[in-house]
Amino acid sequence: MKLNTQNLKKTENRIIFLFGPTAVGKTDLLCSLFSRSCEVVNADSVQVYRHLNIGSAKADAEVLSKIPHHLIDIRDPWENWNVNDFVSNADKVCKDVQLRGKIPVISGGTAFYFKTFLYGLSEAPPVDPAVRQEVSQWFETVGKDAAHTYLASIDPVSAARINVNDTYRITRAVEVFKTSGKPLSSFALPTTVRNNMDVVIIGLTCDKEVLASRIRNRVKIMFDMGLVDEIKGLVAMGAKPEWQSMQGIGYKEFFNHDNLYDESIAEEIAMNSIHYAKRQMTFFKSFENVNWFSPEDKAGITALLKDRFPDLPEEAWPSADLS
């Protein structure tokens, strides 16, 4: 049964967060529970790129036919995309979705996007364009490892928070230090929710052994679907390891090997994904007011949604046994 959105109450400021580690089962829930009343705002830093489909586990045509997705396929692989881009674009998309009488559900695995969207960036000063250019050229010269080491020497707190592959946040921290003479970690982080958002936060979690098995199975499926050919196509476009898009798990590993068919690449991707899932959960657990569920607990999630949105008609949320 398709929901008649004309019967929905005005949804201004209503937003749902649906997050969890990679391969936990977010896509299945989006299709089965959220398709009638919501539209998805992608919060994955790799799925924004065109041509990066298999390695990023991007929603396929079948999923997109069930529930609209926004902020996917909006950048070319050689372009940059950062948290500021995400917040500004997500704000516009959420407003459009709400005006259509739907609820935006922000879903993905880039944990930093969620917290920044909710609270905004730190109170650090704006960076002078000349400093930004200087740091950018320096970063290209020394590389990410040396840049992260330097960050640890000037701002150990930020360095501990920022992964060595997160080039945007490393660069941002160095820019702030060069501009202000103070470490980024010394500036206060916002603690008030932006724009009076009415946010329902749903976190998905499962046993770590089960999650590891799901990740390994997903990596196998990716290779069966043609991940190597996808990489070849990107290389033919001129893909380089320093491209921001190529630094995501599922892509960066190929640049560590001369042979694209190296059998160890699949295991490397799986292990990196398992370690990344652990870091994701650590970050997600820092959020307050999270409603934690097993991805199989559709009845519990449905009950939460009905409780938080009592004004919506019964048909807004599918029956819990609907798959």
CATH class of the largest domain: Alpha Beta
CATH topology of the largest domain: Rossmann fold
Helix content: 40-55%
Low-confidence stretches: 1-9
In terms of quaternary structure, the protein is: single chain
Number of separate strands: 6
Q: Spell out the CATH superfamily of the largest domain.
A: P-loop containing nucleotide triphosphate hydrolases
In terms of DSSP E residues, the strand content is: 5-15%
Main β-sheet description: 6 strands, parallel
Return the string of H and E elements: EHEHEHEHHHHEHHHEH
In order across it, which strands form the biggest sheet?
3-2-4-1-5-6
Straight-line distance between termini: 13 Å
Supply the helix-strand structural class: alpha/beta
Shape: globular
Which features characterize this protein?
323 residues, alpha/beta, Rossmann fold, Histone, subunit A, 6-stranded parallel β-sheet, 6 strands, 45% helix
Question: How does this structure look, described?
Answer:
By secondary structure, this protein is an alpha/beta fold. It has two domains: 193 residues, Rossmann fold (3-Layer(aba) Sandwich); 58 residues, Histone, subunit A (Orthogonal Bundle), CATH 1.10.20.140. Helices cover 45% and strands 9% of the residues. It contains eleven helices and six strands. Helix 2 links the parallel strand 2 and strand 3. Helix 8 packs across helix 10. It is globular and about 60 Å long. The relative contact order is 0.18.
